[in-house]
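Record format v2
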Amino acid sequence: MMREAPLPPGSTIGILGGGQLGRMLAAAASRLGLKTHIYSDEDNAPAFDVAAEATVAPYTDTQALEHFAASADVVTCEFENVPAASLEAAGRAAKVFPPPKSFAVAQDRLAEKDFIAGFSIGVAPYAGVESLDDLRSGLARVKLPALIKTRRLGYDGKGQALIRVARDAEDAWAAIGRVHAVLEGVVLFEREVSVIAVRGQEGTLGFYDPVENVHENGILAMSRVPADISASTAFEARRIAGAIAEALGHVGVIAIEMFERADGSLIVNEFAPRVHNSGHWTLDACVVSQFENHVRAIAGWPLGDTARHSDAVMTNLIGADVEQWRALAAEPGTAVHLYGKAEARPGRKMGHYTRLYPKR
Amino acid sequence: MMREAPLPPGSTIGILGGGQLGRMLAAAASRLGLKTHIYSDEDNAPAFDVAAEATVAPYTDTQALEHFAASADVVTCEFENVPAASLEAAGRAAKVFPPPKSFAVAQDRLAEKDFIAGFSIGVAPYAGVESLDDLRSGLARVKLPALIKTRRLGYDGKGQALIRVARDAEDAWAAIGRVHAVLEGVVLFEREVSVIAVRGQEGTLGFYDPVENVHENGILAMSRVPADISASTAFEARRIAGAIAEALGHVGVIAIEMFERADGSLIVNEFAPRVHNSGHWTLDACVVSQFENHVRAIAGWPLGDTARHSDAVMTNLIGADVEQWRALAAEPGTAVHLYGKAEARPGRKMGHYTRLYPKR
């Protein structure tokens, strides 16, 4: 890619999506003297509170998208399920990063598996499923227990069903709505690890230290760094993350979730072509956070230092957990982050807190 | 003071002043799920980019101030020279912190000296000046060289003149505009130190580690932490800062500038009842920054941890210095902050950068 000049301070970053990720991206952009314009389909999106401009319109409104993009010097996304046509509409009026391929692969669980497996990175046994017959023949290959997941638009445990025994197959197929899906063998693992990487427009790569994640009810509950993994596993995790970012020609932050098996080997579960919940600790434990590094990458700035000055444990505040804010705010060594969401619905990410510890 | 409930997430902080301090306060408020409404007399004030609401009106427009304050749950200031009548106007519609006394004392250099000297904290020899005769008699007491400073509205080296020899007196008196002034003996000192303290509504005090400051042309150039002072001097610096904050009944962040003399004793130069340039390093080297702690204090939240996880050197980007942004952004261990100001006028604070080092 041609070396282009970085966007100077005063430029505008357009962000599709107005949730907590957009909010923290906007705050990070402000550190660099950059303005943000947030596009959301919701009134009162949390990111509006820290942005210079806001547009409320559906993600399918190509005219509004073009108008929005025309006001920005570069456009990015806080979520991966933005329709390809929306990205194209924005792309007619501004540069868009990450590039289309990152979204296309991440939006389709089967394409994602094929892509990752295609260059000899381990994945769970899987099979594409377009019918109940496919599902039955797939089960013979991937073994029980298995998960069936819709190919598109699933996150945080939605759009998937567990198949424990063969007779669950029909119910599972019904549960996900009989849509194109991918069947995955459930893999035993010791721990879930993720790597937050960032890739610049000229191909420079940066990596935060691998994180150990704990999920509850299909939602990330806690991320801890350093992960309790060997130096060689950490090295391999980074290699995998770099290989995926490279192969996508990705620009911006990308999060790769992996499982470490008992033998120390890693398989990739999935990736998200964006800033990620398992990287929130970087706000408080690193010189430059994942949010700022994403902004730097898409704005053509030099990538920032990903070094970690502290050990950290990040815990999400889900739904009513947020009521703990006052007690948490009083705890030493604790940074509290609340997302400005009015209603604490069950399962909704309302905030997080990060406890810092001296580096071991 | 009665114990009141802290402002819940979703509340609005009104900030008088829209410069870089307001901008960083607004970004800090957003971490806590709080919204901000910025009041500035300038179009396109830097803080507008990260605020939910903005009002552009003169600081003397009491109707606009009342309207602004009515939209906020608490009002604060990013600068100390806001007129008392403006604070009163805001106070008719919302709580205002810091309290009026902090502003009244800080706005008048003579009142400030009297206040500090009043409880046996060292200050430079000084004398109130209302006429050329006062000035001449004052010089006999404070000794040469001396500085004459207007009692009101001076900052960053403006509104003051140096008197080296007695015959300079008349010119100096003319240079400051023959207004009520304070004459100060120029004190020899080893270094300038500042302490950033924060005081909560219930009187709780927090202190950041003392900072060593270097000024150039009357403007802060660099702040370094830890300061090269003994543990007992650091203890004394903190004691002085706490005594001043207490005596004012201050709520919020307060910055106290002191000189360390060759014998290790401290004299107070001045204080600012607000977040301060010499505390910008706390954004990157502490769990909770001065900006967030100011917001916590005025919102009635528990104060946040002021502990420092790293050593730090903060350097201001003044005027054309800001052109270094691209090179600085590429430096390891360096956090770059730009304020979103369009025009890099000489002497204008355009940004700063903080280099972090492992704690010694």
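The mean pLDDT of chain B is 95.
The CA atoms of residues 195 and 237 of chain B lie 7 Å apart.
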